Amino acid sequence: MARFFIDQSQISGDSVAITGADAHHLRDVLRLKPGDVITVLDGANREYCVRLDTVDSGHAEGSILSNCLRQTEPRALLTLAQCLPKGDKMELVLQKGTEIGYTAFIPVVSERSIVKLDADRAAKKGERWRKIVQSAAEQSGRARLPEVHSLHSWQQLCDRFTDFDLVLLPWEGEEAAGLKETLKAKNIGAGVGAGASNGTSILVIIGPEGGLAVSEVEKARSCGALTVSLGPRILRTETAGLACGVAVLYESGDFS
Question: Is 182 helix (H, G, I), strand (E, B) or coil?
């Protein structure tokens, strides 16, 4: 069944309005028509079963048949700060990160980032990235739409550490602290029952292809980040955040 994220303002009583690109996709791509049933999500964990009443160019309306709360969101609120990688790797990170369960993404420009974006290109990239996240969220059955933040400098990222309960910085130079032992020391997942949220907000920071400069690591540490090892193998930038995310969510009880 086709799934669409909409703004809560598009729901009025027992009626739902679908506009813009979603209406185009509904009519011209999926070839849906009045009488067909779709799933609509309001971004606040509520899912609606909707029967289409009218399907026109750029606008469709439907009647709500039923609705329910969906428990699809991770128990820990996990944000990925990804230093810009080359090519289309960022799109892969966003797509798969959304499927895994990241709740937000922060694109970051670091000292060794090869990709540099001016304000105009960053805005265009941000628009495309949000579309990729929305598509992945709809496909994977997410009940909330992960947020894609604006492009951050390293300093801007460090300034946001106080927004999180825990900041993890996987780094190949860390030889003492492993990810698993760090999560256990912080009691991630302790006392969480099935289907419950532990409310813990965790930021995972992943460097670019060339790694992070030592000065950046030291800056992050001074602001409260914990450097951790992801094991004896070196992971690519587009792999590290996904692997770390799965490990954190597993430890928090999300895959039980």
Answer: helix
- Of 65, 66, 51, nearest in space to 18 by CA: 51
Backbone φ, ψ for residue 86 (5° rounding): -80, 160
Based on the fold, state whether residues 93 and 152 are members of the same structural domain. Answer: yes
Q: Which two tokens stand for residue 186?
A: 């912080």
Q: Are residue 122 and residue 194 in the same domain, yes or no?
A: yes
Q: Which residues contact 151 (CB under 8 A, 6 or more apart)?
A: 107, 108, 109, 117, 122, 125, 126
Question: CA of 190: how far to CAs of 73, 102, 169, 185, in Å?
Answer: 18, 20, 22, 10
| Predicted pLDDT at 198 | 59
Please state the φ and ψ torsions of residue 142, each to the nearest 5 degrees. -70, 145
CB 138 within 8 A of CB 4: yes
CA dist 26 and 108 (Å) reads 34
Domain that holds residue 226: 77-251
Q: What is the pLDDT of residue 190?
A: 53
Q: CA distances (Å), 181 to each of 186, 187, 202, 248, 252, in order?
A: 9, 10, 16, 11, 13
- Given a cut of 50, the residues of the chain with pLDDT beneath it are 191-196
Which pLDDT score, from 0 to 100, does residue 115 have?
Answer: 78
Let me know whether 128 and 108 are in one domain. Answer: yes
Structural domain ending residue among the three candidates 24, 51, 69: 69
| Inside any domain, residue 133 | yes
Is residue 256 one of the residues assigned to a domain? no
The pTM (predicted TM-score) of the whole model is 0.85
